Amino acid sequence: MALAPQQLEEARSATRLEVREEEPTGYVLVTGSSRGIGRAIALRFASEGYAVAITYKSDQQKALETAERARRLGAADVVVLKMDVTSPESVQEAYRVLESRWPHLNVLINNAGILHVGGIEETSLEDWERVIKVNLTGVFIVTKTFLPMLRRAPWASIVNLASIAGQTGNIVASAAYAASKAGVIGLTRRLAVELAPYGIRVNAVAPSFVETDMVRSFIDTPEKRKRIEELHPLRMIIQPEDVAEAVYFLATPASRAITGQVLGVNAGRLTC
Ligand SMILES: NC(=O)c1ccc[n+]([C@@H]2O[C@H](COP(=O)([O-])OP(=O)(O)OC[C@H]3O[C@@H](n4cnc5c(N)ncnc54)[C@H](OP(=O)(O)O)[C@@H]3O)[C@@H](O)[C@H]2O)c1
């Protein structure tokens, strides 16, 4: 039976709506998203209907918990990948899996990282190399590997997790950690220029203390918490969700004119 023009239009718009509901808002990969800041970022995107790839290095259980929460929040697709950002083979394998499943990648969040604390006299060459390898070389390896999928996307951006330690020496972290995060800032700025012709934006966030496993030992008593709060003009302990909100803004088209920038999420600790 032929449909009347009005019925036809109604049917068409219903189909379009249905498709729009099933289509992911976009495709996002968050490295080191089994817990902490990476988890909060993955969940922020999930709640907006993105297809989300969650990666972990060793804690599969935590990654599966993140995945389950992402699904409940409305992620269009959830993929859990074991990926060591220091291993080109491991990152390449993750690329193969995602490429066979998704048409492209809109957003890459380079979040995986490790903390290192201690003066140069206690820092061995092995410590130095390990920190630089995960925090800086890892960003290079993952970005270079996933570039073809980002280039295929109608819009794309990268957000790197730097740190206030990469902006000021006046912070509890080793020189290795500070240098790795300053390196991430340099990499961000250079890639912003280099990838602009492809329409890919590259930005970084630089948090101060954020309440995660990474800095748990600095805030595990009321006295220590108070000391950390007092370091920040806003007198607060920053939460992973605070960082996720900044990352979400920088990663998505709302910030389409912003690239090569470092957004401090530091409760006023660094105001320059
Ligand atoms: N927390 C802070 O105060 C703070 C402040 C400024 C910047 N940051 C930066 O924010 C990022 C996230 O920190 P966080 O506090 O959320 O850390 P976290 O709670 O310790 O979580 C680290 C995440 O990175 C993953 N990871 C570690 N090494 C990896 C490797 N070689 N390859 C792949 N994944 C790896 C971990 O996976 P597994 O669970 O499998 O081990 C985990 O998912 C880091 O880059 C950190 O430097 C943190």
TrEMBL record:
Family note: Belongs to the short-chain dehydrogenases/reductases (SDR) family.
GO MF terms, alphabetically ordered: oxidoreductase activity
Any Pfam family: adh_short_C2
InterPro entries attached to this UniProt entry: KR_dom (IPR057326), NAD(P)-bd_dom_sf (IPR036291), SDR (IPR050259), SDR_fam (IPR002347)
Name of the featured protein: Short chain dehydrogenase
Native organism: Hyperthermus butylicus (strain DSM 5456 / JCM 9403 / PLM1-5)
UniProt cross-references to NCBIfam families, sorted A to Z: PRK12826.1-2
PANTHER family reported in the protein's UniProt record: 3-OXOACYL-(ACYL-CARRIER-PROTEIN) REDUCTASE (PTHR42879), 3-OXOACYL-[ACYL-CARRIER-PROTEIN] REDUCTASE FABG (PTHR42879:SF2)
Keywords in alphabetical order: Oxidoreductase
Highest taxon in the source lineage: Archaea
Limits of the Ketoreductase domain: 26-208
Gene3D superfamilies listed in its UniProt record: NAD(P)-binding Rossmann-like Domain
Regions annotated as coiled coil: none
Keyword Nucleotidyltransferase: no
